[in-house]
Design a protein that fits this description.
This protein is an alpha/beta fold and about 150 residues long. The chain has helices at about 10-25, 60-65, and strands spanning about 45-50, 75, 100, 110-120, 125-135, 135-145.
């Protein structure tokens, strides 16, 4: 099920907003691994829906993978555990990646989207990302911490 209606403009809007969020919140490759050991495009982003009862449509998923192919390898998961290495005490995301659980994109001129960002047991936070339309693209207007 889509985060908005199923019309193409809602799909495009969701994709554009999620692309902006992922680009803003994904760590740089090498933040945890020495840069000499990785290729430029080794950034891996696992993505999923923040709300169990409201998934991200396959159309949005496919478009996100395509839009971000020069930025990161994007893999969608149905459950958080699919992206986490449970054999390591730190419980890191697989492939030195980041897990981003994305909330639905509300309608309106300045939507706010809740996001849970997880790298490992010591690097996890929830935020509400405020966005604004700047010319033909979305831009992050603010990031507010949510949760405990």
């Amino acid at each position: 099920m889509s985060c908005g209606s199923d019309d193409p403009s809602a799909t495009d809007r969701d994709v554009d907003v999620y692309v902006t969020i992922i680009r803003a919140l994904a760590p740089e490759p090498g933040d945890r691994v020495p840069r000499a050991e990785i290729d430029e495009l080794d950034r891996v982003v696992y993505a999923g829906s923040l709300e169990e009862d409201q998934g991200i449509s396959l159309e949005v998923q496919a478009a996100l993978v395509e839009e971000l192919e020069d930025f990161a390898t994007v893999r969608f998961v149905d459950e958080r555990d699919e992206a986490i290495d449970d054999t390591d005490d730190r419980a890191p995301v697989l492939e030195d990646g980041v897990l981003m659980l994305l909330g639905p994109v509300p309608t309106g001129r300045s939507p706010s989207v809740e996001v849970e960002r997880y790298v490992d047991a010591d690097d996890e936070f929830g935020v509400r990302v405020g966005l604004e339309r700047a010319d033909a693209t979305w831009a992050v207007a603010g990031v507010e911490t949510v949760g405990p």
